Amino acid sequence: MLPTLFTALKKNRARIHEIIYEADTRAGKAFDVALLIAILASVLVIMLDSVRALQEMFHLGFVILEWVFTILFTLEYALRLWCVNRPIKYVFSFYGLVDLISVLPTWAGLFFPQAHYLLSVRVLRMLRIFRIFKLANYLTQAEVLKQALIESRRKITVFLITVITIAVIVGSLIYIIEGEENGFTSIPRGIYWSIVTLTTVGYGDIAPKTGLGQALASIVMVMGYAIIAVPTGIVTAELTQLKLKKISTQVCPSCAAEGHDTDAKFCKDCGSKL
Amino acid sequence: MLPTLFTALKKNRARIHEIIYEADTRAGKAFDVALLIAILASVLVIMLDSVRALQEMFHLGFVILEWVFTILFTLEYALRLWCVNRPIKYVFSFYGLVDLISVLPTWAGLFFPQAHYLLSVRVLRMLRIFRIFKLANYLTQAEVLKQALIESRRKITVFLITVITIAVIVGSLIYIIEGEENGFTSIPRGIYWSIVTLTTVGYGDIAPKTGLGQALASIVMVMGYAIIAVPTGIVTAELTQLKLKKISTQVCPSCAAEGHDTDAKFCKDCGSKL
Amino acid sequence: MLPTLFTALKKNRARIHEIIYEADTRAGKAFDVALLIAILASVLVIMLDSVRALQEMFHLGFVILEWVFTILFTLEYALRLWCVNRPIKYVFSFYGLVDLISVLPTWAGLFFPQAHYLLSVRVLRMLRIFRIFKLANYLTQAEVLKQALIESRRKITVFLITVITIAVIVGSLIYIIEGEENGFTSIPRGIYWSIVTLTTVGYGDIAPKTGLGQALASIVMVMGYAIIAVPTGIVTAELTQLKLKKISTQVCPSCAAEGHDTDAKFCKDCGSKL
Amino acid sequence: MLPTLFTALKKNRARIHEIIYEADTRAGKAFDVALLIAILASVLVIMLDSVRALQEMFHLGFVILEWVFTILFTLEYALRLWCVNRPIKYVFSFYGLVDLISVLPTWAGLFFPQAHYLLSVRVLRMLRIFRIFKLANYLTQAEVLKQALIESRRKITVFLITVITIAVIVGSLIYIIEGEENGFTSIPRGIYWSIVTLTTVGYGDIAPKTGLGQALASIVMVMGYAIIAVPTGIVTAELTQLKLKKISTQVCPSCAAEGHDTDAKFCKDCGSKL
Q1: pLDDT tens digit string along B193-212?
Q2: Residue D188 lies in a domain
Q3: Following DSSP, what letter does each residue of B9-75 receive, concatenated?
Q4: What is the ipTM of this complex?
């Protein structure tokens, strides 16, 4: 029977490629939807398996389901490798890597029991969701966000290095001021506290108890408050510019007016053709 | 007596419709103000009833008041249904649904004791407040905010899916790193913690205790710090553009094109005078 | 001696007015600086008096100092009233009211012991600081911020009502879900929790413990995360527009170019006079 | 041997200057990379030395390493002083001061045991990192951020004074409302709490317990939520303007006016060609 299956596969290589990689055809879309449900179901199984009460009741069922999904995804990975024209390129693409590390943890779990929880990375496969409906629109928006972040990468790097520098210095100061008896048992812990404070997360698991420590904390908080404005400002300025750029810089040939929309065909001030 | 009342109602159907649905006339405005006070009073009663000390003292009074408000609102709902021209449309409109679920919980409370606290949804009726004073101005502003959010819905969807994906992966990692002995009893709980951290809420009910966990938390916090910039940037860029462009709602008389600048004198698509 | 003092005061009424109300002359500036120091010192005394350890040691000294400052400020208030031309207008101005409530608590403290801590409102007098150095620049900036906030007041009202509505509904839901045994003892307390969560403050004094409660909290947090973008967007869009407006809309008379700075005297494209 | 070394140093003074101060040549870059690694390693040693468990095991090793780094950095400081043309200017420059305080704590540690933790300020030397790769680009971005902050300094000052005033008043109110039995032991502690709340950090080490206190906290939180919008708006508007205007650094040859748009062909102040 297996040889017959292989012959059938070989004959339909192009069609299989279309079903697996594209979402335009009916079959392709059905495949993507089924895949998405399988991904979500498998992530759900992993999550539920980690809940003690449920694990005690359904452990065997969860293990079986996990293996079913893993074998399905492994077969799918093999199929993808086989029907694509440039398998090496696929293997090292973002989705290729995600597909691979989505099956590895179960196999690794045979040797390291904790590893199978790493299967949660399967949720990354969920990003295929954008492929299923109005792909282009969402990808364009993701592209805009990505471009805004790339344009600002230097400003963000400068910003991050500044924040880390502040965190290290403040972390050392608080360690000296508060000391071990107030929970600041080491400089790394002080740095952890200063990041918790600067980012306005504020768990409260460690908090300054002396007056001097609370004064320092107050300064750091107000600083963090001002600092939070910077990355927001950077990304916003970038997004605003990308949005406003859409206003064409074209000048009307007859009246020299500026500020036309990019899709304008006639001058909005005198009506002559642009 | 009842038949007389019904005849009186029938005669004044148009006037009743005006009083209940409009806020332009003196009577209409008085009705809306009275309704608003009744809504706020009824929400207040529900809140106070939930406070143990007050409940023990005034429980009977609260129950009576709640039934009075419920019967009043039920009558009002019936009146609205009766005097509107297209009752089906009203029933399924936003305010129609709100009006209905504002009375249901008391009746449901006859069977499920906890249900009557759901009466707090009555506060949604408070949104009618915008109708009472300078309606138009506030609704325009609400419209601008709504439009900015609608325009950005795709970017926000992309953003939310990214955040959820990060939360699932970080939640699994922290579960493996910290384990049950430090309060991370399951992956869903780990995801809950990672959302608490990413959004910079930081309750501190669960917090990493190992060095590795705190290092991961620090990275997540700085990431959350950078990520918070993105939705702000999206909405701001949208609002700034709406402000700067002030797109006119004028439609071209010859080609029906929309989206002209407010200062445009000629259609940007066909060049004819606006 | 007192009559001589009064005569001297009467003679110099105009000069005293200048010293007290203006900061342009040498004496006026000296007076303002001395006043500022007195204000800060008096607020410091009140703060230190509230610290148990210090109070036990220096209570008498603190009381004497507080009375010295109060009598000084009362005399100053009387002088201000006497030398100004329209005392009624001063009494009901912002600074007039602040000056009055800055002395009242000590006198009220004779009857209500806790009242004298309200003297901290004296810190409001510190806002006079802007008068001392480059007044105009700072006031202009404060004006810009104020204008941006006023322009956005309708959007902010819409936003606040939305937030309060969400807080009331979420607060009732969490009260039903978590119940009294998990610290949510009443609906008002649930609302307090939902505001703590929505604003990403997250004290952690009350936190959901059931799975369902944590799921609701997660949704509220991500919502709060998205919502925080709205007021920021509103204020930023307003400030950006105020900044960009500075670009004049003047058109060059010879080449019709636009986009000149407001302080430009010549066209930046052809060099002809504007 | 030492005299020979000094002669060799004297001969190569210009070359040494180039290696130490520039990052363009191969040797200069290698020196900077080595220095960076030494800085990071020395900061790491200080951090690890503060962890009790590691200190007990490796204390002697850490002390030796610290002295090695300190002597190296002291020698480097001496070399920098010797080979630069204007040593006084270097000593009082930002990097000169950082270089000095990076070695002082170890020497001070001979007298004050805690002082050596202050060595963490060495991390400030890490800012030299920008020199190593594509210097110009990063410095330009840092310059843009700095300029945006400088331009907004007056608005930020106004904002900070407002925040501090609110914090002092709210801190006094909460002290009166909650009192010592709920953890608000003094007004300074109340101010600390109000800053923790206004900045949305929310440790939860002190939190209001009475109904009135929680109501005040809710108002402060919503206020803080609105206030956080202001610094973000300020910086963003500044960055957006800098982006949109891209003010040229060109100076007019005839009237020396600055601040022309990048596309300006004629001076906007005197009309002469740029």
Answers
A1: 999 999 888 888 889 999 89
A2: yes
A3: HHHTHHHHHHHHH--SSHHHHHHHHHHHHHHHHHHHHHHHHHSHHHHHHHHHHHHHHHHHHHHHHHH
A4: 0.79
